[in-house]
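Ticket closed. Logging final result for ornithine carbamoyltransferase.
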Amino acid sequence: MNLNNRDFLQESDFSAIELQGLLDLAVLLKAEKKSGSERQRLTGKHLALIFEKTSTRTRIAFELAMKDQGGHSTLLDPASSQIGHKESIADTARVLDRWFDGIEYRGADHATVLALAEFSSVPVFNGLTDRWHPTQMLADFLTMQEHAPDTGSLRYAYVGDARYNMGNSLLMMGAIMGSDVRIVAPAVLWPDQEIQDAAQARAAQSGAILTLTENVEEGLAGVDFVHTDVWVSMGEAKEVWDERVSLLRPYRVDSALMAHANHAKFMHCLPAYHDQNTAIGRQIAQQFGLLDGVEVTDDVFESPSSIVFDQAENRMHTIKALLVATLEN
Ligand code: CP
Ligand code: NVA
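Final structure:
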């Protein structure tokens, strides 16, 4: 596998062998770090980080991964720089290209990360757009492979708002990797038809089984992992909460929903509204009477089946693998 100098914009640009290669490299790098024997492969490398939306895990994972590997990262803050308001993405890309070995971008419009890649010669990494969250997929697949009950194909469900980055990416990544994927949501919140068609085309090659259903019982039968995500994503108007809650209330991940699965592990990309310990979580919980959690109840989130913090940890090991695979000389 040679991913040197490749962009990482969306899962569909990669083969199953390449994606599994990244996961295998993450296993190696994670073991090196845990045993205190990490070898630095990115000495002298510089990475630009652009975050037009907020982040805890993705930003810190990129920063820590570069530091562990002997490289350096620079945050370009849209609020205090020219990007977007006074300078186009094409011009910004051509400036950063002269100084940096790679560029990470998080923002709304997927076209922006594509433009950065078009106008720069260095690898561009998608740290989340409204359409895809591919670095999250590396962490999710590593975590599922670590916890899978057997070595066969992964069997998982995504329950909730499936027409956004997490639903799209979990459908596409599973399609490429040959998984048994269930999208469990009201049909109006399924990935758009173009994404469903592209995923089905990859499934035809990989042997993946893709099921889109409104029926929770059917969707969860036999799965080993249940994923969800927030019901309203970054950048969406707060007015959509009313409609979203009425659509998704039957799809909240609680212990009754989990009982339909096969002693499944619970997964969430985080951040999650599972309690009232954040201002927004409290406000939504009280406004809609979801006092024990919004997209997931607190008892499921805090249960022994919940592997959300393994998943969060793996963001760093998998992003490190991506950086090493694309930037190492
Ligand atoms: N899961 C995830 O992308 O987290 P952040 O928004 O904190 O980066
Ligand atoms: N769907 C969420 C994912 C956050 C990591 C969002 O876009 O806000």
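Residues 11-133+315-327 form a domain with the Rossmann fold fold (CATH 3.40.50.1370). No further action required.
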